[in-house]
Design goal:
Blueprint (H helix, E strand, L loop, with lengths): L13 E6 L5 H13 L3 E3 L8 H14 L2 E6 L19 H11 L3 E7 L14 H17 L1 E5 L2 H50 L13 E5 L5 H11 L7 E3 L10 H11 L2 E6 L1 H5 L1 H15 L4 E6 L9 H4 L15 H16 L1
Parallel strand pairs: 1-2, 1-3, 3-4, 4-5, 6-7, 6-8, 8-9
């Protein structure tokens, strides 16, 4: 993937629901019910026993796979996952989620409890530092999203219904724009392929009578595993009459690369996942894998996971449900000659 992480939503009707404090569980349930009534898929981080880093990872992955973030903000700052690496600024989980949504240019819908509501941080004895963080956070929300202010459940319920209805229309428009973009790219690619085939035929080409398109293989890997990716691609080139492979190194400067990646994923018949500890630790890779897995369930794509270095792939449901090459035996554990033979078998299997 490009150095600037990007991942389009898995679909355009999923909304992540967040809330800054456990007191709002009833409001979150009401918001999720209102969304479901109009056909939105309302997603939320459920009960867990994860360490702080795991909580952050899971939460931000959910933001990335969703098309929008709906946040319920009260007068308390909320849970702060304590991890010096993943959360050095000691931000609340809700603020981390908002930051990720803004970075990914997701739609943000905020429901904010009025300042004069008695459930305040000061009432509960929160430290001055935490109260200041909350005030700064509320100001950022007002600057970056459409805010709906409420005091009671009676006020919240109709606000939520109206806001979600407007959000639904906005997401539908986004989905339509993406479909048109992908169709345009596909039509251009199809036209180019047709012209190339016609040109080949006019010059007397005898290859299969002249016009069979090659299957497209999308290769999903982290930049830390680039050497393994290149090894596989060089092996696949031995079968270049049968298949075409694609990875983000083929992106050209100046193009809308996120649209291009989406279009390639939509056209691919096979997706190779190069699994390693770095792959499983990458939010971007896991989100990309989830999108590819969803496409495979529709029958439009075959997933081809390959373990290149020992990793806990069996802990990932999306991978565990798919047949992994050689039952998950890591290529890195093989002797050099065995690796070469195995890569040839993989390339042959992909192209068959």
């Amino acid at each position: 993937m490009p150095n600037e992480e990007y991942f389009a939503p898995l679909d355009y009707d999923t909304v992540m629901v967040s809330r800054s404090f456990a007191d709002f569980e009833e409001y979150r349930a009401e918001l999720m019910k209102a969304g479901q009534l109009i056909g939105l898929k309302m997603a939320a981080l459920g009960p867990h026993r994860l360490m702080p880093a795991g909580v952050i990872e899971s939460s931000l992955n959910l933001v990335k796979s969703s098309a929008a973030l709906a946040a319920i903000i009260g007068n308390r700052y909320g849970y702060v996952p304590e991890d010096p690496i993943y959360n050095p600024d000691e931000l609340s989980l809700t603020e981390l989620e908002l930051n990720e949504a803004i970075r990914l240019k997701r739609s943000v819908l905020a429901f904010m409890m009025a300042d004069d509501n008695p459930l305040s941080g000061a009432m509960f004895g929160d430290e001055k530092k935490t109260i200041n963080k909350l005030e700064a956070f509320r100001s950022r929300i007002e600057a970056n999203s459409l805010v709906h202010v409420f005091k009671t459940m009676d006020e919240f319920r109709p606000l939520a219904a109206r806001a979600l209805h407007d959000l639904r229309r906005h997401l539908d428009a986004q989905a339509e724009a993406m479909r048109e973009s992908v169709e345009s790219v596909n039509a251009t690619a199809s036209s180019s392929a047709s012209l190339a085939a016609d040109d080949s035929t006019s010059q007397g080409s005898q290859v299969n009578g002249g016009s069979t398109a090659r299957p497209l293989v999308f290769i999903s890997a982290t930049h830390k595993d680039i050497e393994w990716r290149q090894l596989l691609e060089r092996t696949l080139d031995n079968y270049n009459q049968d298949i075409e492979w694609w990875d983000d190194s083929k992106l050209e400067p100046g193009i809308q690369w996120e649209t291009e990646i989406e279009a390639v994923m939509a056209r691919a018949q096979i997706a190779v996942l190069l699994l390693s500890p770095d792959y499983l630790d990458s939010r971007n890779a896991i989100a990309e894998m989830a999108r590819l897995r969803a496409q495979s369930k529709s029958g439009h794509l075959k997933l081809f996971p390959i373990v290149i270095r020992d990793c806990a792939w069996k802990d990932v449901p999306e991978i565990r449900a798919v047949q992994v090459w050689a039952n998950g035996s890591a290529l890195d554990n093989l002797a050099p000659r065995q690796r070469s033979d195995e890569l040839n078998r993989i390339a042959s299997s992909i192209s068959s």
